[in-house]
Amino acid sequence: MGGNKKIPMRKCVGCQEMKSKKEMIRVIKTPENDFLLDATGKKNGRGAYVCPNGECLRLARKNKGLERSFKQAIPEEVYEALEKEMGILETG
Predict the structure, then answer these.
(1) Cα angle 48-50-51, degrees, rounded to a multiple of 5
(2) What is the dihedral of CA 69, 22, 19, 44, to 10 degrees?
(3) What is the C-alpha separation between 22 and 52, in angstroms, rounded?
(4) Residue by residue, what is the 3-state secondary structure of 35-75?
């Protein structure tokens, strides 16, 4: 038996590139309408993916990629929280 495991691919809401799920950051909307970064990719909620760099987050913000994914407006503080968390992820 061949060990060809299929790699799940996801599209970044910023740059629109397809990349493997493992190298992306998942942004989820919980049933309580909270927006969180899901580093594990296992939390419950509607998810959208963004590349782990500030440029893609800026693009997603500019072209309203997250708004389209979640079909609703995204509060400014959500983007700020994502930028903070992403800053931590980029340096760590």
Answers:
(1) 155
(2) -20
(3) 11
(4) EEEECCCCCCCEEEEECCCHHHHHHHHHCCHHHHHHCCCCC
What torsion do the CA atoms of 45, 15, 86, 78 make, to the nearest 10 degrees?
-50
pTM: 0.81
Residue 88: in which H helix or E strand, if any? helix 76-91
Closest CA to 39 of 61, 31, 49, 7: 49
Say if residue 91's pLDDT is above 60. Answer: no
Q: What's the distance, CA 5 to chain centroid?
A: 23
